[in-house]
């Protein structure tokens, strides 16, 4: 048996001495309110919660499985909160990790012992965190009131659950579609031990409450013979095989168990149809060996997490790093079945089929174009290619490139047009195995054209494009009424300027000279909302007058989730131009100092994520190293409250991954990564085509955090950035760190 295990491990490319990095992942991190100082000062309400869940599944999977402590699919309410102490089931969830959106197409399985109960307040089971075991591939909890152990593991689209009774009694499984609208269907086939059903998906934001054009399907197989069964709803319990379109529907399965008996179920999920859920299950889970499946899923996570190996004697830093890396691999979400079938984007229950690759959705694009997607441009370019192809398919099927595609629908959530920024970033890196011309057509349409009023209201096209094009900024008179985020005119102007720059880079590559010239001109529109009298961005009217009164450190209606002082630095494509507006590099440095020294930097809001790296554009790059080190230490921890705000589909976590490695993509489209001091003693990144990038640090003392010298493949390296072209080839980067700043290093950008 030992020889078989050794062969299995070697077949996965692992040795028996390989470090178990899965052990460092803490899935409960981010399930409690943030405890960081910046979050407590600048965050409020749901922004204080990271909104992650202890998700069990595989990287970028279709469905995650999570313990459930909160019923419903309510916006900004994750299925699991650390402060809760009552379990209401195991949820097959499509919650956007770390978001403030909503779950959709989900269902819950709840095991209970004793008499049948179908009301959550009756069947909910008390539990303690000390009785939980959490991992990316596995979850276990003991329910003392039921004398029952609950365990589950999960693949890309399917799960196996195992329930162990510690007393002889009746065991019931409640299987419930989680529709807040009283919709859905569930049916029992007792003779074959099968339950199937679906939960209709509905839109939020633009088109709120309307059908999204597809369902969350499930197909569940029970290992043991069913003793009795029935259905229920909010109005009662019924002796029927199926139930549909009532409030709080579900089915129950009854079994007689002895002490020590184990009941197992397998369940497949699909967004396409019941047959897809069945095929997904049969493809991914072929037997009832729970231990073997759990071990297999662990090895898949081990392989994924081991793509970056960090070495440090500080276990806390390893825990934070690998937890962040795990959170970075929750999205985008796989949407197609094993045979390539998926629901048409923004469709009406039509199905499409891929001939190759995978189709993905749930792009929290305003967040993840910054660091989460760029992380995998380095690590998994094939995944990024599929993601770009998915965006193109959405645009072709729906008529417009979506701004923020979630639940396979248009949303117009948040601001900007960062699907363009994402595609441009992939394009400039040579990730182009898709129809580039169609991608450009769709991006250009968003940048130059407005849809019909009906399409615009449904979420298609850039918000407030007309006034942006007319004035070179979005004036205060335009309240942007047909959007979830209304107003926020200055933030929109800044972000459109970046998107115009991003599209200009693609236009340049395709020799579209006229478009390039126009877009580069528009990329300077950030200047139109910068007021040199206050040295910050500011709301502006059509007549060019400024919004009064000016409050630089207050949340203003023309800024998205932040202050003018914070958003002033969102010019990632032209930091030298911003510095010139301020009066030069020294003034940029002074403005950055004022922000940080005044406690106004807020790490919990994505538009600020590039700010600490902007010192690299000044005569004091060492201050980037200082500020990043402070953020790594103060805004992340290894407890349940260890994230400084919504993780937003992994963006907050991806920032940590990049920053702790020592480089960050302030402007992903540029292909440059600004340098800072790595957190770890040694880093080994396995790149595509088996190339390796090794980063080593030589420290003056254990607390050294300032770069004094860098060698790249044994040659002195004086610049304070690295390029994608260099990184993807691998090699050795040696960084000497000192206790005091070397104020002459890194002045060459």
From TrEMBL:
SUPFAM superfamilies, A to Z: Six-hairpin glycosidases
Keywords of the record: Calcium
Glycosyl hydrolase family domain: residues covered: 276-738
Transmembrane segments: none
Origin superkingdom: Bacteria
Gene3D superfamilies: 2.70.98.10, alpha-1,2-mannosidase (1.20.1050.60), alpha-1,2-mannosidases domains (1.20.1610.10), GH92 mannosidase domain (3.30.2080.10)
Keyword Iron-sulfur belongs to the record: no
Keyword field contains ATP-binding: no
A GO CC term assigned to this protein in UniProt: cytosol
GO biological process: carbohydrate metabolic process; glycoprotein catabolic process
Residue ranges annotated for the Glycosyl hydrolase family 92 N-terminal domain, each copy included: 24-270
Coiled coil: none
First and last residue of the signal peptide: none
Pfam families tied to this protein: Glyco_hydro_92, Glyco_hydro_92N
A GO molecular-function annotation: peptide-N4-(N-acetyl-beta-glucosaminyl)asparagine amidase activity
UniProt subunit comment: Monomer.
Alphabetized PANTHER family for the sequence: PEPTIDE N-GLYCANASE PNGASE -RELATED (PTHR12143), PUTATIVE-RELATED (PTHR12143:SF43)
The name this protein goes by in its record: Alpha-mannosidase
């Amino acid at each position: 048996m030992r020889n078989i295990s050794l062969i299995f491990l070697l077949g996965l490319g692992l040795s028996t001495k390989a470090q178990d990095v899965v052990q460092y992942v803490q899935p409960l991190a981010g399930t409690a309110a943030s405890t960081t100082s910046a979050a407590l000062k600048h965050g409020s309400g749901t922004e204080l919660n990271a909104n992650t869940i202890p998700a069990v599944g595989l990287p970028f999977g279709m469905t995650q499985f999570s313990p459930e402590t909160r019923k419903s699919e309510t916006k900004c309410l994750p299925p699991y909160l650390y402060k809760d102490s009552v379990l209401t089931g195991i949820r097959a969830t499509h919650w956007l990790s770390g978001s403030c959106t909503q779950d959709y197409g989900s269902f819950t399985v709840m095991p209970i012992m004793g008499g049948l109960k179908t009301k959550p307040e009756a069947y909910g089971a008390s539990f303690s965190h000390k009785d939980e075991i959490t991992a990316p591939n596995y979850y276990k909890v003991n329910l003392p009131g039921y004398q029952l152990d609950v365990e589950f593991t999960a693949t890309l689209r399917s799960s196996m659950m195992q329930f162990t009774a510690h007393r002889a009694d009746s065991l019931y499984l409640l299987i419930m579609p989680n529709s807040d609208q009283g919709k859905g269907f569930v049916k029992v086939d007792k003779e074959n031990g099968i339950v199937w059903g679906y939960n209709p998906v509905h839109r939020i934001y633009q088109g709120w409450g309307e059908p999204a054009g597809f369902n969350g399907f499930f197909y569940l197989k029970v290992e043991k013979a069913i003793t009795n069964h029935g259905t229920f709803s909010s109005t009662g319990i019924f002796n029927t095989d199926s139930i549909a379109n009532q409030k709080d529907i579900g089915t129950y399965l009854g079994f007689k168990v002895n002490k020590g008996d184990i009941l197992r179920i397998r369940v497949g999920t699909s967004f396409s149809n019941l047959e897809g859920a069945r095929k997904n299950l049969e493809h991914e889970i072929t037997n009832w060996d729970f231990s073997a499946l759990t071990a297999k899923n662990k090895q898949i996570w081990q392989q994924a997490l081991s793509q970056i190996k960090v070495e440090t004697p500080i276990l806390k830093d390893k825990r934070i790093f690998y937890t962040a890396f795990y959170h970075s691999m929750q999205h985008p979400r796989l949407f197609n079945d094993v045979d390539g079938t998926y629901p048409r984007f923004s469709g009406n229950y039509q199905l499409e089929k891929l001939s190759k690759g995978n189709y993905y959705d749930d792009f929290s694009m305003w967040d993840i174009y910054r660091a989460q997607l760029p992380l995998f441009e380095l690590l998994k370019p094939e995944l990024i290619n599929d993601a770009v192809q998915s965006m193109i398919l959405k645009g072709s099927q729906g008529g417009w490139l979506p701004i923020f595609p979630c639940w396979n629908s248009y949303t117009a959530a948040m601001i900007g047009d960062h699907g363009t920024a994402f595609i441009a970033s992939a394009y400039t890196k040579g990730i182009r195995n898709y129809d580039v011309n169609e991608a450009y057509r769709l991006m250009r349409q968003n940048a130059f054209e407005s849809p019909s009023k009906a399409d615009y209201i449904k979420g298609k096209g850039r918000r407030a494009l007309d006034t942006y094009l007319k004035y070179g900024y979005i004036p205060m008179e335009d309240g942007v009424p047909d959007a979830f985020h209304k107003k926020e005119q200055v933030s929109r102007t800044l972000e459109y300027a970046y998107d115009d720059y991003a599209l200009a880079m693609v236009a340049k590559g395709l020799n579209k000279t006229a478009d390039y010239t126009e877009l580069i001109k528009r990329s300077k529109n950030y200047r139109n909302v910068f007021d040199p009298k206050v040295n910050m961005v500011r709301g502006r009217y059509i007549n060019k007058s400024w919004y009064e009164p000016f409050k630089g450190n207050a949340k203003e209606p023309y800024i998205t989730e932040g202050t003018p002082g914070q958003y002033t630095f969102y010019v990632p494509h032209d930091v030298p131009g911003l510095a010139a507006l301020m009066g030069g590099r020294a003034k940029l440095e002074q403005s950055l100092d004022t922000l940080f020294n005044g406690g106004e930097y807020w790490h919990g809001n994505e538009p600020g994520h590039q700010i600490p790296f902007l010192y690299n554009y000044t005569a004091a790059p060492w201050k980037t190293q200082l500020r990043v080190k402070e953020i790594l230490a103060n805004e992340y921890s290894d407890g349940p409250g260890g994230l400084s705000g919504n993780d937003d589909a992994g963006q907050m976590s991806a920032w940590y991954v990049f920053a702790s490695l020592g480089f960050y993509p302030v402007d992903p489209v540029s292909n440059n990564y600004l340098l800072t001091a790595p957190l770890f003693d040694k880093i080994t990144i396995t790149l595509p085509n088996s190339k390796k990038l090794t980063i080593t640090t030589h420290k003056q003392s254990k607390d050294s955090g300032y770069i004094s010298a860098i060698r790249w493949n044994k040659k002195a390296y004086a610049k304070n950035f690295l390029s994608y072209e260099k990184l993807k080839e691998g090699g050795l980067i040696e960084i000497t760190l000192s206790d005091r700043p070397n104020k002459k290093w890194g002045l060459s950008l």
